[in-house]
Amino acid sequence: MLSEKMKDALNKQVNAELYSSYLYLSMAAYFDSINLNGFAQWMKAQAKEEVGHAMKIYKYIYDRGSSVVLESIDKPPVEWNSPLNAFEDAYKHEQKVSEMINNLVVIAREEKDYATENFLQWFVEEQVEEEASVDEIVQKLKYVEGSKNAIFMLDSKLGQRQ
Ligand code: FEO
C-alpha cells in the first residue's frame, strides 16, 4: 500500500504526464496549421508516449493497492512564433518534468518507500533521453537560423518518427 502522501504525488504525476500529452498535441496542431506535417507527426508520437508514461504510473498505483483519481487537465498554449519557439518550450517543459520526477524520488525516500523509489528509476533515465532528444532539435533549429530549405529537410526527417 502506498502512503497517502506518495499516492497523492503519483496521482499528480499522472495528471502532469497527461498535460504533457495535451501540450504536445497542441504543438502538433500548431505545426499542422503551418503545414509542417513532419514536425506535427513528431509531436503526435511524443503525445502518445506521454500517455504511455501516465499509464505506467496508473498501473503502478493499482499494483500497490491504491487508486487513481483523475483531476482536470490544464489548457495548453495554442500558438508559437516559430518551430524553434515551440521546441524551446518543449525543452523547458521536459526540464520541469525532470524536476517533478526528482521530487517524487525525494518523497519516496522520505516515506521509506523503496519499491516506489525503484519504480521511479525508469522515469529518471527516461527524462535524460527526453531532454536530450528535444534539445537536439532545438540546437538544429538554432543552427539553421530559420532557413526554409533546412526546415523542410528537418520536417521530412522528423516525420519518420512512428
Ligand atoms: Fe513524460 Fe516527456 O515526460
Q: Secondary-structure blueprint of this entry?
A:
Elements: H1 4-33, H2 37-63, H3 83-110, H4 114-144, H5 148-158
Helix pairs in contact: 1-2, 1-3, 2-5, 3-4
This protein binds MU-OXO-diiron (FEO).
The site of MU-OXO-diiron has 7 residues, from helix 1, helix 2 and helix 3.
In a nutshell, what does this entry contain?
The chain is mainly α and 162 residues long. The protein contains five helices and no strands. 78% of the residues lie in helices and 0% in strands.
Can you give a write-up of this model?
The protein has 162 residues and is an all-alpha fold. It has one domain: Ferritin (Up-down Bundle), CATH 1.20.1260.10. It contains five helices and no strands. The radius of gyration is 17 Å and the shape is elongated. Bound molecules: MU-OXO-diiron. MU-OXO-diiron binds next to α1, α2 and α3.
